[in-house]
Automatic annotation (TrEMBL):
The chain crosses the membrane at residues 215-239. The lineage of its organism: Bacteria, Pseudomonadati, Bacteroidota, Cytophagia, Cytophagales. Keywords: Membrane, Transmembrane, Transmembrane helix. It comes from the Bacteria. It comes from Hymenobacter glacialis. InterPro entries: Glyco_trans_2-like, Nucleotide-diphossugar_trans. CDD domains: Beta4Glucosyltransferase. Belongs to the glycosyltransferase 2 family. WaaE/KdtX subfamily. Residues 5-153 form the Glycosyltransferase 2-like domain. This is Glycosyltransferase 2-like domain-containing protein.
Length: 254
């Protein structure tokens, strides 16, 4: 069985991190938390649960996760977010992969809890992410947001059974606040990529399609009020992203 490190990046995750660490059980031989100088008691909670803590100023999601990966004691790494919890089935699947490692990386499915409701439609499920990997065979990539672990060319990936329970937003206000932050970062990323041409198509039709696609075509309506909120706020996020990009571009040209 290959030795395994669990790696988690944190900033003010006192509300989540204990639940995440408690659910690890005996899945790994090493747990390291890379914290970007939390101002709550995240670090104390991590140490109480036996995790090593490394302090490192936040350098962006991609750079932070690549740095965190280097802090693992072992080459085989399970990267988790503080608001994720392993189920029994997923733990068993990870152990099976450790006992018979066959791929460069393995993906897990996330089941998201949105304001107390488990979301299974609208494009939010199964939300597969490559999280179990051999760090020698890939790296975290991306620009500012939407980071992902990418294996080296020609290598294969596998699937893990079970779920990581993702406790995303506990309130509509939290979702909207996070959306405002992420749309600003996304607008900045689009500008860096040179995609600065914003038309009425981007401001009107793309948000409308986002709602229709998520709520009707991806059956978000089956998630009830939570599905409606997700579709509506997601559509608003598309508008905000392009509105911020348009404003940013015009101010830069003025």
């Amino acid at each position: 069985m290959v030795p395994l490190s669990v790696v988690i990046i944190t900033f003010n995750e006192a509300a989540n991190i204990a639940r995440c660490l408690q659910a690890l059980g005996d899945v790994a031989d090493d747990v390291v938390v890379v914290d970007s100088f939390s101002t709550d008691n995240t670090v104390d909670i991590c140490r109480q649960h036996g995790a090593r803590v490394v302090q490192h100023a936040f350098a962006g999601y991609v750079a932070q996760k690549n740095y965190a990966t280097t802090q693992a004691r072992f080459d085989h790494v399970l990267q988790l977010d503080a608001d994720e919890v392993l189920t029994d089935e997923l733990r068993a699947s990870i152990k099976a992969a450790r006992a018979n490692w066959q791929h460069a990386a393995y993906s897990l499915a996330r089941l998201t809890n949105y304001c107390g409701h488990w979301v299974r439609h609208g494009g939010w499920y199964p939300d597969r992410k490559l999280r179990l990997y051999d760090r020698r065979l890939g790296r975290w990539t991306g620009l500012l947001l939407h980071e992902k672990f990418e294996v080296n060319a020609g290598l294969t990936t596998g699937l893990l059974a079970g779920h990581a329970l993702h406790y995303s937003y506990h309130s509509i206000a939290q979702h909207v606040s996070q959306l405002n932050k992420f749309t600003s970062i996304t607008a900045q990323e689009l500008a860096l990529r040179g995609k600065t041409n914003v038309t009425w198509f981007h401001l009107l039709l793309k948000p409308l399609w986002k709602f229709v696609h998520g709520y009707f075509f991806r059956l978000g309506l089956l998630d009830g009020f939570a599905g409606l909120c997700i579709a509506g706020i997601s559509a608003w996020g598309v508008f905000l992203k392009f509105a911020k990009l348009k404003t940013r571009t015009e101010q830069a040209e003025a």
